Amino acid sequence: MSIIETERLTLRPFREGDAEMMYRNWTSDERVARYCRWYAHENIDVTEGLLRMYLNEAADGFEYRWAITLKGTDEPVGGIDVVEISDEGKTVEIGYVIAHNLWNKSFVTEAFKAVINKLFECGIEKVTARHCIDNPASGRVMEKCGLVFTGYDKVEEKFGSDKICDVKCYAIEKRHAV
Questions:
Q1: Cα 41 to the chain's mean position, in Å?
Q2: pLDDT tens across 107-158, in order?
Q3: How far apart are CA 106 and CA 87, in angstroms?
Q4: CB-neighbour burial class of residue 121 (10 A; exposed 0-12, middle 13-18, buried 19+)
Q5: Residue 103's closest CA among 164, 49, 155, 35?
Q6: How far is CA 39 from the centre of its chain?
Q7: Using one digit for the tens of pLDDT, what is the confidence trace for 66-114?
Q8: What is d(CA 33, CA 176) in angstroms, rounded to the nearest whole number?
């Protein structure tokens, strides 16, 4: 898996030993989980299980997941990854998360732009993303990255939940990338 460098960030593969920082920086934070499809992790064991899944998927060849780290540090402060790939493998959906103390500082926008460019270089033709309608800040990130609103949808609010959440959907095609 490739490392992506931006002006302020290094996007790198997740590694053994990242669970503690993931748990401290975002997986245990109710404020972060509020807008995600997962519940805040009750303990580090849950985060360690998530990290094991990430590492197993990487070992099986999945190359589209990065830990977000601030340049000059190696501490994961968030993550960005492909959460869905179309059957033909040309369209992907991106998900992202970052520590609450880094919200509204354009770090996710910077990371997302870099990932979009990398995906287009790898032959992906369309990148999509969606957010809960209660989280307009995430929509602004998508728009700053060149994605355009394509419509509304409904998804499970949280994995394993019966509650449905309204989401706004966005997309950018390679031919329209800036």
A1: 17
A2: 999 999 999 999 999 999 999 999 999 999 999 999 999 999 999 999 877 7
A3: 32
A4: exposed
A5: 35
A6: 15
A7: 999 999 999 999 999 999 999 888 999 999 999 999 999 999 999 999 9
A8: 32
Looking at residue 49, its amino acid is G
**Two structure tokens written together for 49:** 């299980």
Provide the token pair at 41. 């992790």
